[in-house]
Structure formats: structure tokens, C-alpha cells
Amino acid sequence: MSMFTHMLAILFGMGSWVSINGLWVELPLIVPQIPEGWYLPSYLSVLIQMANVGPLFVTLMHRFRPGALNETAVIYVIIILGTVASFLLGFFWKETVLVGGVPRSLALLVLTFFLAAVDCTSSVTFLPFMMHLQPQYLTTYFIGEGVSGLLPALVALIQGVGVVHCINTTQSLNHTINTSNSAGNYHLQTQYQPSNFSAEVFFFFLSAMMLVCLVAFLLLNHHPAVVREHPNPRYTNGTNENSQSRRTWAEQRPMMDPFRHQNHKSRSSFGSGSYSWMQVVYVFVILAWVNALSNTVLPSVQSYSCLPYGNNAYHLSATLAAVSNPLACFIAIFVSIRSLVFLGFLTVLGTGIGSYIMSMAALSPCPLLAEDTSGAAVMVLAWIFFILSLSYVKVIIGVILRDEGHSALVWCGAVVQLGSLLGAVTMFPLVSVYGLFSSGDPCNTSCP
């Protein structure tokens, strides 16, 4: 395998969610400067789910007009759109217009919708494109997808986003002109540290990352060293250039599994027929569940679960969880266990760890061991193993479905987005409408 192709697969995967991930980590710097304030995360959640119209369109076209949609052209369009939208955010994210007499960050919201459409649609286009390459490069692609969350988080740490300082201030309890009779009460006030560089620079960085993704995609399509490694020269983009028989051959022929007998009996009409319909449903249910938990349900309460243990615990949890994603993909390169029973075990394990995290978030601002260093250590480890276990499940399912053909990878991306959508729909009212979670003041909250 070519190390050059591995690097291109990582850079290509990195463009899948780097824009939205970057926008989320930049929120502490953006929110104080826009009229929406901390309602912005709720608006972003809604916009991201509305952007699922992109993957819905691609999936429906694949289902009812197979071969009519040029996959490569769609990928070029969404990467270029993501590059331009990220670049424009650097100029217009603070601009406001009056909507119904109220100032709104219309440019920020519209450009965010386009970024969300790009990232959501990548789930049903980037993965199927990996059928062009040898099977081993799919795991490398998942490493790049993990890096799309890690890299913005590291840059935000360098930028100093969200770093809190507790400053002593004096609050007068007697607001009279005679200050000698006023009583002073010292308390701590929360202040965010100024960033090392502006949000504009950060958005230009995101645009540069999308441009790198575009260059990587160009090379994956046209560089001679990569083209020579294409496993099936007859497979193009699922367009009408080939005959129906050739397209069917490319869709159904398993590309990987040295342990599979050539004359195995078909157990279903899904993919190569290696799995029964019960197993197919089982795999897709697990895929939707782990993506709901890891993409929307637990991230929506991460601050509630971590901040009671301190600002350092929160940043460690966010950063090391982001590291755990590509680490799980790296492990899958060398240890690839495809047992459906083992995937179920890891899903149960990850769900159990996630239940602990959710419980601590519900107890915020005074969860268990809030005043103890061990509490922070347990929470950081919980986030690491939660992401590590579920990310491994996602990668192995991707590898399994890659063997079942191009169509299976399209449905893989669609189910990923469906799981994320269901998780967001569930958590949005709980967090933003009913206010079931309380964050407390990081400088003044005291627990018994």
C-alpha cells in the first residue's frame, strides 16, 4: 500500500466534518459578540438538522435513480462550497441585519447552513467514493474523519478559546453615597481570557483545511500512483457511462474478506448476501445508536458533565475525546474484529459509560466527587473510553459494509445522519426548551 495514498485518504476524510466541528469549538469566542448570545448553539442544532436535506436528496436519488447522480461531481461541489463558505465567514460572521426590528446574525446563520449541508452530505458521498480505492484505505479515511474533530480542537486550545479566570471583585451591599458605611463582600467573577488570535483567522484556517481536502480529492482521482491502485477499473462513479450489468457488478461484488468462500450461499439480497436481513438490521440499528450517542446526545451535555470538575477537566475531556476518535481508527488498522457479538459488547460498554456521563450531567452543578480530584480523573477517562469504544464500532461497521458494495456505504452514511438526527431531536428540547441541565457558575458554585 502506498503511504502517499494513505496520507491523501486522511486529508480527504479530514474535510468531512472539519467546518462544523471548528464552528462548535469557536462558540465561546463568537457568542459574546453576536446578538443571539448563547441561544446560538440551539440555532446551530436546528440548522444542522435542516441541512440533512442534502444527504436525503442523495439517498433518494441513489434509491430511485441509481446511476443518475455523478458522485465525483457532487463531492467537488460540496468541497468547493465548504471552502468558500468558511472563507466568507471570516469576513461576515459579525455582520447583523434587522429582521422584524431585531438585529440578527443572518450571514452567520446562512453560511452555517451551507457548511452543515456540506458536512452532512459528505456522509453519503465521501464514504461511497472510497470504493474507488483498496479496502485498507477505508480505515485510513476514518482516521482523517476523526482528525476533523481533533485538529480544530487543538487550534482552539492554542487560540485560548474558553479559558476561564476567576477574579476577585468587590460587590457593594449598601448602595449609598456614603461609601464608608457600605459593606464590601468579596466574591469571584468569571472572566474569559482574551484569545491569542481572532475568530477571523480561525475561519480562514478552516477554509484552508477544506482547500487541502479539495487538493487531496483531486490527487485521489488523477494522480497516477493512486489510479494504479484502483481495485476495479470498470467502476467509475455510478454514472450512466457503464452498462447496467457492469454497474451491478461494481455494486454487489465484495472487495474484501479473504475468509469468505467464493461459492457461499446468499443469505439475503443485501450487498453480497453474506448477512441475513436480521443481521443487516442489527448492524444498522447499532450504527444509528452509536452515532446518536457519540455525535449528538452526549456532546450536547459535555459541558454539564465536565465543568463541575473544573475548567481543566473540561478541556482535557474535549481534547482527549477528540484524540480517541482517530486513535480507535488507528487501532482498527491492526486489530480488526468483525464479530457482530463483539460489536454488540462494545456498544453496550460504550452505552454504559455514556449513561454514567449523562447521570453526572443531570446532577450538575454538583455531581458525584465534584470536590475531589478523582472525580475529574474518572470523568476524563469516561469520555476517553466512551469515544474510543463507539468509534471502533463505527469503523468496523464501515469496513463490513464496504465489503457489501457501494450501495451499502451510501446507506451507511444515511443511517449515520439518521442516528445523529434522532439524537439531536431528542436532546434539543431537554437541553434548550425544558432546561433539565444546569451548568452552575464555574467560579462560585460550592457543593456540600
Binned, the helix content reads: 55-70%
Total helices: the number is: 18
Strand content is 5-15%
Principal-axis shape: globular
Strand order of the largest sheet: 1-2
Radius of gyration, in Å, reads 24 Å
First-to-last CA distance: 58 Å
Main features:
two-stranded antiparallel sheet; mainly alpha; transmembrane helix; globular; two-stranded antiparallel ribbon; 63% helix; 448 residues; 18 helices
In short:
This protein is mostly helical.
If you had to describe this structure to a student in words, what would you say it looks like?
Keywords: Cell membrane, Membrane, Transmembrane, Transmembrane helix, Transport. Plasma membrane transporter mediating the uptake by cells of the water soluble vitamin B2/riboflavin that plays a key role in biochemical oxidation-reduction reactions of the carbohydrate, lipid, and amino acid metabolism. The chain crosses the membrane at residues 38-61, 73-93, 105-129, 141-164, 201-220, 275-293, 313-335, 342-363, 375-401, 408-437. It catalyses: riboflavin(in) = riboflavin(out). Belongs to the riboflavin transporter family. With 448 residues, this protein is mainly alpha-helical. Helices cover 63% and strands 5% of the residues. The chain has helices at residues 3-14, 18-25, 27-30, 40-50, 53-64, 71-92, 106-122, 126-129, 136-159, 199-222, 224-227, 244-252, 277-297, 302-306, 311-334, 340-363, 373-403, 406-433, and strands at residues 97-99, 102-104, 164-172, 184-192. A two-stranded antiparallel ribbon has the order 1-2. The protein has a two-stranded antiparallel sheet with strand order 3-4. Helix 4 crosses helix 7 (106-122) and helix 6 packs antiparallel against helix 7.
